[in-house]
Amino acid sequence: MKSCRSTQESGTWTLPWSCSPLIAPVVARHAPFARFLRCETALVRHDMAGLRALNLAEIHASDSAGVDLQAARIGCMTPGYDLAACRREIPVLQRLIPLANCSHSPLTTATRRALDNYRDSLDRDVMDWDAWMEQVDGAKCEFAALINADPDEIAMASSVTAAVASLASALPLRAGRRRVVLSGAEFPTVGHVWLALEPGGVAVDWVPMVEGMPPALEEFQKAVDERTLLVGAAHAYYGNGAMQDVAAIARLAHRQGALILVDAYQTLGIQPVDVRAMDIDFLVSGCHKFLMGIPGIAFLYVRRQLIPRMYPTLTGWFGRADIFAFDPALLDWAPDARRFEMATPPVAAAYAARAGMALIRQTGVAAIQEWVLELSRLLSTECQARGLAIAGPPDPGARNGVTAVTCPSDAGKVEERLRDLGVLAAARGEAIRLAPHYFTTPRDLTLALDALAPLLGAP
Ligand SMILES: Cc1ncc(COP(=O)(O)O)c(C=O)c1O
Predict the structure, then answer these.
(1) Closest CA to 77 of 367, 360, 361
(2) Is any ligand 1 atom within 6 A of the Cβ of residue 160?
(3) pLDDT of residue 74
(4) Among 102, 167, 186, 187, residue to substitute to test ligand 1 (most atoms within 8 Å of Cβ)
(5) Pairwise CA distance, residues 260 & 268, whole Å
(6) How far is ligand 1, taken at its centre, from the CA of residue 237, in Å?
């Protein structure tokens, strides 16, 4: 181990950098970042001494260059969109550094406006079902466009759990094809839905995680056979952001005549998803993580050809061919994915979801993916330089954009302390997840790591 020490010109702050020969080239690539880091560190050194909350307003005021120039200052690429303009549309950035986007993203002015429109309609008309249904349909269209599906292949639900439960209730179990093979990287709720169906004849088998990593493709290969009805694979593991190659998993599932369900909650908004190119049968996601919406809404994609053969037993009046037939004795089926819907849709959340997804699409998922990857690289380099261990794949390109910093003490407490300091991070298990998004700046990451490192006992 070679130790590079870097002293701030004023002599008030010393950064201990421990660089192994392995990461030295990476650190060298980010040498301008080191200079940038030194000057940013000066802004928060008093906070570091007493662990006082970050005064972001003061920090912003001191930055005459403007946030859109930060990337240039550290020598990394700049995003393919106007970062400063994006940031102006997120008022909370004046007070907080939101890096818990894998859990919940901040409110934008577009989303707030959409929610205001809903509240105005309540005030004005009490109920305006036509306008509300137009928003519901608009949200489905946005979701469809995001994943390259058609709107009539999309059902709206109140949560991913409800969407998966509805789908699971429709899967035709056949003699000799009752196995549901699940990746160990599933969010727990997906496992719970399938496990609860075991008394009804479903047999759940797991392809387990290995040392905190999602299973290798060969493990799926071994697990999936001609008795498999469905394979469930999260696009990224919620714990540390490790991506799964869902297109490859789909291929091997289909070779055995099985279907594939992808949970894309941890990737939609920051990673491109194309259900046609990836040959995905079913996909679920909600909106309050990287899609800039609010809780209470989720979407289910069902491949068009499968819809007419599926009859969810979890159903209700919104799943009918004619919602307004009002005949309790008639169980007809909507010809499209609406047959997977149950009841009155989550209207308020649909307003917000539509606005959030439109914003993401306008900004451009490919551009967001590039920027998030650049920020993940910086996080990796800086964590290594500070002696902070990262859980999950070391290669930022193998992660969805989330960096999970290993936390020797109680991660929940560290999350709380960070929140007191003005940094929103998301504890999960024994890690603190830092999840940058399109509006995150390199300086946000610097400040967050300056706050986090002492809490983890790093030098
Ligand atoms: C990957 C993933 N799937 C599903 C969920 C749960 O979604 P819901 O609460 O909408 O069922 C989460 C987290 O909230 C998640 O990260």
Answers:
(1) 367
(2) yes
(3) 59
(4) 187
(5) 17
(6) 11
| 228-234/431-434 β-pairing | unpaired
Which domains occur in the chain, in start order?
Answer: 1-59 (no CATH), 82-107+365-459 (3.90.1150.10), 128-362 (3.40.640.10)
pLDDT at 56: 73
Tokens 């919602």 belong to 323
In the prediction, which pLDDT does 71 show?
Answer: 55
For each successive 10 residues of the chain (459 residues), what is the average pLDDT? 27 28 36 38 39 68 52 70 97 97 98 98 97 98 98 98 98 92 98 97 97 96 98 98 98 98 98 98 98 98 97 98 96 98 98 98 98 97 95 96 94 97 96 98 96 90
Quote the pTM value: 0.88
Residue type at position 1: M
Measuring from atom 3 of ligand 1, which residue has the nearest CA? 187
Indicate if ligand 1 lies below 6 Å from the C-beta of 161.
yes
| CA atoms of 17 and 459, how far apart (whole Å) | 9
State the greatest distance between any 2 C-alpha atoms of the chain, in Å, as a whole number.
81
Distance 144 CA to ligand 1 centre (A): 19
| 180-213 residues labelled b (16+ CB within 10 A) or e (exposed) | bbbbbbbbeebbebbeebeeeebebebbebeebb
Neighbours of 119 (CB within 10 A): 12
Element of type H or E holding 84: helix 83-88
Nearest ligand 1 atom, CA 158: 10
Q: Give the C-alpha separation, 183 to 410, whole Å.
A: 27
